[in-house]
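Re: the request from the purification team.
They wanted to know what the chain is likely to look like in 3D before they choose a buffer screen. I agreed to run a prediction and write the result into the notebook, where they can find it.
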Amino acid sequence: MSREGIPVGTMVRGNGGKAPGRLGRLEGRGFECVQIHWWAGLGADDPAETARRIEDDPADGRPGPPVRSLALYGNPLRRDSEGDEARRSIEALIDSAAVFGCSIIGLFTGRIPGRPWEDSLPEFTRVFESLAARAADHDVTLALENCPMGGDDASGDWNLAYSPAAWERLFNALPSRFADVLGLEWEPAHLIGLGYDPLAALDSWKDRIVHVHGKDARIDADGTVRQTLPGNGSTPWDVIFAVLKRSGYGGTVDIEGYHDADWSGDRELDGQQRAAAYLRDCRDGVRSGPRWSAGENTE
């Protein structure tokens, strides 16, 4: 693949209005784009003001990489003030996406805490019909992230969209007119952790993937699943880029850091820079990734 292919970037947290400064510190490290994300809710942050500061007042005069997507990882299905804040924040990002020049917003579906998976489906349908309609009005695509957040079919607190079977049910729960505004924010590490073959899932769901998180995992000899930066795990990223390219993927691959114990603390940003270089090499055909050995679960 040519160097004009799928952009490789990283994630920058936006809470507390700190995104502009964090973007500036990435300048010159080889990141081609960023995803700005907020945890739980925007709080006092005004996303339109954040976009203005990035444009007009970058840290130390360094603008940093371009913002290509946004995200809000909260629980919009909670029936309390936290749920209210998550829904308000998602709506605000939908309304402000064009100011950033973005059209993709990553998010958790949310979940009714402590209840079986199916108990949350009616609330998901109600909440996401409204969010999807708003997204359609603003030419925005909502991308469901596939982190289980410690949940399973029996119980959980954050996210319904953690498995291929769940994706099928969630997409089928909404009217077909929303098919173009609801996609996947896909990451192989979570699938490896749950025992899925990420390449099989990629092949089956490539047409619904609108954003990719660059995080990996490996299974150690003792059976422990360790989350890693790309280049330290077992995922063949060269194959992933090839499949995405063939499917006409128009999004980015943004590194999700702060999970690799070998590149933590003062080494975090250096590790992310190393991972970005690895991903660009896989994208550009400079190197091949490891060959994936499928586990038991190939759904």
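For the purification team: The longest strand covers residues 67-73.
Please add any questions underneath this entry.
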